[in-house]
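Sample intake sheet
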Amino acid sequence: MITNYGLATLNAVLNATALTVVLLGARAIQKGQIERHKRLMLTAFIISAVFLTSYLTRMFLFGDTRFPGEGGIRYFYFFLLISHVGLAILIAPAVIYTVFLGVKDRRDRHKRIAPKVLPVWIYVLATGVLVYLFLHHWV
C-alpha cells in the first residue's frame, strides 16, 4: 500500500541519489572526463524526472504535510522550504536547457550556463532532503 510517508521517503532517496550523481558528474568534468560527465548528468536528470513524477503523485494523493515545529526552528524551516520551492521552479527549465545543450554537444553554450545552473541544482536537491528530514525525522 502506498503511504504519504513511503512516497516522501522515496522522494528524499531520489533527491539524495540525484545530488550524489550530480556531484560525481561535476567532479568528472573537472577531471576532463567528458563521457563520464555526460552519463552521470543524464542519470541525475532522469532521477530528478522520476522524483518529480513521484512528488506530484504524493501531492495529488496526500496533499501537503504540515510542519509540527514551533518557534525559531519553524522560521528556519519555512525559509528553507520557500527557497527550495522557489529555486526548484526557477531552475527546472534551466536544468532541462543545460542538459539539452550537453546532449546536442553545443559545448560553448553549455560551458557558459552550466556553472551557473549547477550550484542552484545542488542547493535544490540538498534542501529537498533537508525538508524531508525536518518534516519526518527531526521535529
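Comment: DSSP finds four helices and no strands in the chain. The two ends are 26 Å apart (CA to CA).
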